[in-house]
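Late entry, written up from scratch paper. The run itself happened at the end of the previous shift, but nothing got recorded in the book at the time, so transcribing now.
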Amino acid sequence: MKLDGIAIIGMSGRFPGAGNVQEFWQNLVNGVDSISRFQADELEYSVASESDQPAGQKYVRARGLLDKVDQFDADFFDLNPNEAELMDPQHRLFLECAWEALENAGHNPGEYPGLIGVFAGCSLNSYLLFNLCRDRAFAAGLAGNYQVGRYSILLGNGNDFLATRVSYKLNLKGPSMAIQTACSTSLVTVCQACTSLLTYQCDMALAGGAAISFPQKRDYLFQEGSLVSSDGTCRAFDAAADGTVFGNGVAVVLLKRLAEAVADGDNILAVIQGSAVNNDGLAKVSYAAPSVAAQADVIALAQAAANVDPESITYIEAHGTGTPLGDPIELAALTKAFRDGGATRNNYCPIGTAKTHIGHLDIAAGATGLIKTILQLQHEVIPPLLHFKQPNPRINFSESPFFPVRQQIEWKRGRQPRRAGVSAFGVGGTNAHVIVEEAPLAKPGSPSRAPQLLVWSAKTETALEKMTENLAAHLLTHPGQDFSDVAHTLKVGRKLFPHRRMLVASHGADAAAKLQAHDASSVFSGKSSPNEPSVVFLFPGQGAQYVNMGRGLYDTEVVFRQEVDRCAEILTTHIGLDIRSILYPDADHLPAAEIQLNATSVTQPAIFVVEYALAKLWLSWGVKPAVLIGHSIGEYVAAVLAETFTLENALALLAARAQRMQALPGGSMLAVRLDGESVAAMLPPGVAVAALNGPKLCTVSGPDEALKAFQSELAAKNLVSRVLATSHAFHSAMMDPMLPAFTELARQTPWATPKIPWISTCTGNWITTADLADPAYWSRQLRQAVRFAEAIELVLDAPAKVILEVGPGQALSQMVRHHPAKTKDLAVGSTLPPNQDPTGEQAFLLASLGKLWLAGVKPDWAGFYAHEQRRRVSLPTYPFERKRHWVEPAPAAPSTARPDREVGRSSDHDISVNNLAQAIHEQLRQMTEQLSHFEACDSLAALNHHQETLR
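Output as recorded:
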């Protein structure tokens, strides 16, 4: 596969009659004419109403309109309302579309490691001219105080600042350039972005343009030979074509080097194989006229850059303005380029243009044509031209490679890649052409987890609800989309916001059903704090074990399995058996394994193995503990993670501990719902308090008969107790015989200062070097009472934390939840489910990860997917919560306002203007009309006509 092109990986836009790219496509395939035609009383401004217009002229009330251009989500982009309403809607909508293009590609710009460039242009700032300019004094101040009083208004409206504002707001650090070449601008931005990528000045690039002029609802004067249509209809290549109709729009694409897009699993929409830009120079009849030779040259240059045979190009998205002379010139240039390139066949290449549907979008026209072409490649269909009946007699289609698209054409993948050419030609002679090729077929992703964790967030609660609704609808309407890739894209391709939601589901329909049902048992929401919380790992002790603990993860999670295997191999030399045969037996050996697991010599190593493997799995996912707490033997796992002990030394010491305990006489342990002091006062001889787990929860330990009698005594007093699943009376005098020999083993075990702080449950305080330097510490740790409640109280006093139990069962997390020092907002989680069902372990674990994410923990999603090949896919983008930010045009009434008064809030409609302001507006109107006519000229006769008119 050729990998030296430029991949288009994201796109966004606003078009007449379409609020997004998907609606644009539906309008194209359904043959919708998106030009608005309005009545006289709907006009916001009328050329026909001017008293100096000659009678009998034809005025056309038609234009391609954008809906809700006065609205914008200023809060999302951290703009204050006054700043937003003084900003040109071209800037505002382009900013939104830039964000959407990145999200459409599944990229979070804040997390992208490379440089992202921005190449953009916009039309004349008519919002500034017609809405913000109030009078001559304001205009003079705007020009005279360029770097003082009204600089902020210029920053929000000047063409120079369109691209750099996007870079500023999205924190993009690649090249950021404003480009202006009239109606070829947005395709030129694409070409320049390609150049920047190919020269490694950036690693991704946003390119496009915005064209929104005001007032939107206005008429125009039709004059024979000019660019504008007599009835507001663009009939490109048709015999009745007499001009175009203008429209408003925004179009943005996101580009990336193809090889890197493939390697990164990007959703490649199409590939730019070649691009070129040139200028007509002087060899044409006038400045505003087009040039056959230059247009042919730029097309040939693009084909040469792509290194393709013209006959391999099977579609042309033309500039196609629908003017009597412009279309023939364009077809003559295309034919020349194709013939010079070796194309000999006739009528094999369909030609179309978006302008028959939406009008001429000026600055945004070229990128819009590119997006239309991408959509045609994706959907494998070429929609017909609108308003086409008979070919323009000035175009010799019969002897050219081209034919106009009269009806829908299937454009299926075949043995050779489908290719298209896209043209845009600007008044002043800057021409652009790109060669677009179908995207390479994506390789299917690797196998993934059966359940998937979906996470999404928003700035507000209402936006989160809308995102949920949009996601559910998307999942239902895209059943073929890989659900694993959906989950991946939500994790890696979206910026994190405070209002969060997550669920675990097995497939798209399952997720959609849970979302639509608001399933509280599956869909969880939260609001994270600005600062990432620290995480505390809790490691339980003996009594939580069961056969097949972690079996579901051993079968599915690579890191967990690797760590269990590693520990098992080390332990074999110490315990004389493969611990995996007891942890994860086959069905025939299950009863024997359950008996063996209850032997202390096996129990303690087995618990360590599972807890250590779980901890390493969490670490591989980027969940890193700030504090470690181990309950009894759980403290050995803490010591290894803190690098106090090596894994090998810890397992050797722990195996010796377990074997020496196993050799001691048996005993029992009893959990009692009462405070330790009260229990201690009731204890019979030989029974000791073994653990202080909470203010009203402790464990006692001693000989079997003594414990049995004590339990009866407690029951007689209506005090609740429960026998624990242990073989010996740990943390009691029954351990004394093993202490001297074990202290000597600890003396021979190397240790190091902890790299992660951990709290000793022997002392109930932070572990110290003095503790660790004393070999008797580990003997005291197995003999004295476990002071878990005190250890937990230490971390509960610290702010911003999440507590996670890492091991079998949920006993420790329950103790934390019932601790009186626990605050309401403290997040407490566990790793394995309470029902000891291996089939549900992975889903439970993913839900636990999701709840950590809800609390503000930032997982390492690269680590999460380290053993998978996932792709980014197109998903619903952020649902902007737009509000009206608008300054109404100045009313034509005498002004009593001070001439130096600044433009205010849109609610300040008491600002009026004087008669001089009317003259200013009239001059601006005439300049705009003249500019549009000059821009429209594509023949010397038309240019001369307008020059005579001006004289």
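The longest helix spans residues 915-936.
(Scratch paper discarded after transcription.)
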